[in-house]
Structure formats: C-alpha cells, structure tokens
Design a protein that fits this description.
With 329 residues, the chain is an alpha/beta fold. The strands form four sheets. A five-stranded mixed beta sheet has the order 1-7-6-4-5, sandwiched between helices. It has a four-stranded mixed beta sheet with strand order 8-13-12-11, sandwiched between helices. A two-stranded antiparallel sheet has the order 2-3. The protein has two domains: 169 residues, 3-Layer(aba) Sandwich (Peroxisomal Thiolase, Chain A, domain 1), CATH 3.40.47.10; 150 residues, Thiolase/Chalcone synthase (Peroxisomal Thiolase, Chain A, domain 1, 3-Layer(aba) Sandwich). The two termini are 15 Å apart. It is built from eleven helices and 13 strands. The chain is globular and about 55 Å long. Helix 8 runs parallel beside helix 9. Bound molecules: oxa(dethia)-CoA (UT7). Oxa(dethia)-CoA binds next to helix 2, helix 6, helix 8 and strand 12.
Length: 329
Amino acid sequence: MKRPLVELVGTGRYTPTKVLTNADFERMVDTSDEWIVERTGIRERHISGPTETVAAMSKFAAVQVLEQAGIGPLDIDAIVMGTASPDRLLPSSACDLQALLGADNAAAFDIQAACSGFLYGLTVAEGLVTAGTARHVLVIGAERLSTITDYTDRSTCILFGDGAGATLVRAVSDGRRGILASYLKTDGRLAELLYRPGGGGCHPPDERLLADRGYFIKMAGREVFKAAVRSMADACDQALSQAGLTARDVDVLIPHQANIRIIEATAKHAGMPMDKVYVNVDRYGNTSAASIPIALDECVREGRIREGSTVLMVAFGGGFTWAAMVVRW
Ligand code: UT7
C-alpha cells in the first residue's frame, strides 16, 4: 500500500435555505412525486437565492475548514475550485472566493471536470503539496446548477440542486492518515451526451441561443445513466487495487449523488452493503462537484467517518469524466 503523503483536514458545507420539493415540480412541469422518487430517489433540492453565489457559498464552507485546521486565510497557498456553474465565465470563481476570504497569498483557479471536479481538485492539490509548490491547499466543490437548469425540461430540472463543500489538503502529520489512492479518467468523445451547447466560443450568446435554450444543461439521461454505472464501477476497482485494499477494508463509500439507482448499482458492483454507503441524494438532488464534499462533511459531523476510517469516494460526470479516491481519515 502506498504511504500517504498528504492528508485531508477539516470539512465544511453550505446549502441554500430555499428548498424545491417534488410537489413544487408537480406544479411546474408534467411530473409526479412518485416518478421522481422511483426513478431518482430525490425528494428535495436546495436552490440558491440572489446572494448565494458560488463564491459566497464556498466561503461559508471554507471558513469551517480553516477553523478546524487551525489556520487563517493568509496561510492558504492555493485554492482549487471544482465547478461547472461558475459565477462568471471570467475570472474563475476561485478568484472571487480568494478575494472574499482575504486569502491574499493563495493562487486560485477553477477545475471544470463537472461532477468529478472535487476528486480532480483533490488530486491536483495532492500534486501541489507533494511537489512542494504549496503547503495548504483549500479544495472546494461548489455549484449553482439552478442558474443553468432549464425549468421547462422535466427530464433534467427535477435532478439538480445548489451547494458547496470544502476540505484542506496538506502534508501528512503522522503518516497513518491521508490519500491512499487516486484514479482519474476521461472520455471526451461522449461530451455531447451531457453538455451546454451554447454560451462559449463555439456558439457565443445570440438570439438563437436564447430561443433554443442552448444555454442550459442538456442530457441524454439513459445513456449517461449506463455510462455512470459502468464508469463508477471501474473507478472503484482501480482505486481499491491501487491502494492494495478490497471492499471489505472500506468503512464508508461516498458515491456522487446523482441517482439512487446508480448509487445502488455502484455499491453492488463494489461489493459494499448499503449500510456502508452514504446517501443524501433524497435531500439535495445532484449538486455535481459539490455532491461529494457535502456528503463528506455530513459523514464527519455525524460520526460515520472517524479517525482511522477508510473512505472510498467515487464520481462520474459530464465530459465524460470519472474518478475515485481512497482516503484514510
Ligand atoms: O451527475 C452525473 C450525470 N448525471 C447522471 O448521472 C444522471 C443519469 N441519468 C438518470 O439519472 C436517469 O436517466 C434519469 C433520472 C435522468 C431518467 O430516468 P430514466 O429511467 O432513464 O428515464 P428515461 O429518460 O428513459 O425516460 C423514461 C420515461 C420517458 O417517457 P416515455 O418516452 O417512456 O413515454 C420520459 O419522457 O420517463 C419520462 N420522463 C418523465 N416522466 C415524469 C422523463 N422525465 C420525467 C419526469 N417525470 N420528470
């Protein structure tokens, strides 16, 4: 087993106060609570208000992490933000967060790896620390998917929610805890199964974009579903084998929270009973890059993850991107 070189310290999260329930969607589009619960497991999602920007939500999550890590904003050397719904296209939301936090010594940048953004971010942070480029890297997953969701498209609008989660990556303090394995993968040929057709350089904003609603997320749900199950299974296998562990060694599996059926299929493939699998998709829906760090924070605060726990995190998202990481807490 690889000797861990970096550890995760502290967790934090923020979810907006406004909640949209399945009953709310019954009034907005042709759907039913029964269909949504049966096909996705989602019951409600949190939706940001005007001041709950990606940067603002991230700040709430980051402050909790700094408090637990016992450091101040000036001690942060880098901020790595996974987001697919940045506050602006330029500059990155990480830059806005850096200013909000007063993290004057930190380099800051976003990672666009969709729902895998937090695990990609952790892996980049691991590299920054092991290369000696940074001592303390704040890693965030934050999304305001409600701003890029088409609320007239019943096949996608019932899925997505907003929120932020964070942790800090630094060199290991005692050699027993930290990142044991990390696996990243991409298949860009499948990009158009889950994407936003317009708004970027290929289709800059114009009247057609507004008419086509091409600014919003488009998804071929069934194809994405199949790829998600396949890829998350692959990622679990790869990360566990890299760590020299089996499913029996894992105390908690935190899968990306997109759909309860994908979560159950991933757990089944990994050979993990559902009582070891953390599920909160019912309360938040799919919050993309924020999904794993929100779940991680809940697990730590609920005592499901304790010192010495072995945690497997696995994600899948647009790109397609997928990733898994094994961490000893
Ligand atoms: O974050 C990572 C990426 N995202 C994901 O991992 C999401 C992956 N995909 C999924 O979770 C599922 O594919 C969905 C939840 C999006 C859809 O579930 P599904 O079981 O794959 O349904 P479907 O797309 O095959 O549609 C089945 C039927 C269709 O009607 P017909 O053609 O059979 O008459 C849809 O029009 O369900 C219909 N439908 C709905 N009915 C009621 C689609 N959305 C809704 C809805 N309410 N909200």
